[in-house]
Amino acid sequence: MKKWIKPALTLFIILVLIIPLASCGQEKIQTIRIAEVTRSIFYAPQYVALAEGFFEDEGLKVDLATTAGGDKTMTALLSDGADIALVGSETSIYVYARGSSDPVINFAQLTQTDGTFLVSRKKVENFTWDQLKGSTFLGQRKGGMPQMVGEFVLKKHGIDPRNDLNLIQNIDFANIATSFASGTGDYVQLFEPTASIFEKEGRGHIVASFGTESGHVPYTTFMAKQSFIDENQEIIEKFTRAIYKAQQWVYSHSSKEVAEAIQPYFEDTEAKVIEMVIDRYKGQESFAKNPILDEEEWKNLQNIMNEAGELPQEINHDTLVNTKIAEGVMN
């Protein structure tokens, strides 16, 4: 009888020690809900962070939802349908200008240039921007970053969007490419991979990059309500660290390796096309190399909004931007 008491007691002690440890491990996994404005290769570092397990390394489980549009994405965030939003920084300005008591704070930048390209229906030799004068230009939604950047670049090249061309901007974002393919417009402003696919199929020809022309701007950032950041500082830090790892990974690996990593998130797009798009975005440094949204970029954003007549009020960088989190994880 006594012979089995000691082994049994030892087993009991081991179980008492192991079970709490296992429970602690489970408690460390925290779920974070992300609302992305659209599914795009433009956001490659985010998908790299998911595919390479950088979020898991930080003890985070990411629940990613595509909310299709800036308004819907911000609504999801403000109504607590999401913890973090990936969307253009201009949306945080719109919310603040409406007098929000719980402002939306930009804490980690993902892309630092516009991600659209100017696509011509006809092949153009030696393209110059003044060739757009008198043409029909199929632009993006009024008030959104693509359209504001588009108008900013046109004005930069001496083109009045309202008088020098026929500007169409009343077509829903999801239908712009279809409208161009069906014959609307001489030029169109398109995101990748649609621009490259159209060029490959002979439906259009990429003649210029709005990202190269407009300079650095906080085009897409991760943001959260101030209250969420205050109550979940550790989670926000872990999330930002995972994004920073992914940003470094993207620039330290080949476009082919990046394409292979994010392929599961773009099953309907050929691997070669994904690689070509990644290469193009890396070449013009559209992917931010770190999560810091600096003052110069914030100023450029408001200049672009002001030129488009969409800036409700000028807002200081430190009012809606938190760089301490990014600086902390980088150090």
TrEMBL record:
It is found in: Periplasm. It comes from the Bacteria. GO terms for cellular component: periplasmic space. SUPFAM superfamilies: Periplasmic binding protein-like II. Keywords: Signal. It holds the Pfam family NMT1_2. Belongs to the bacterial solute-binding protein SsuA/TauA family. This is NitT/TauT family transport system substrate-binding protein. The lineage of its organism: Bacteria, Bacillati, Bacillota, Bacilli, Bacillales.
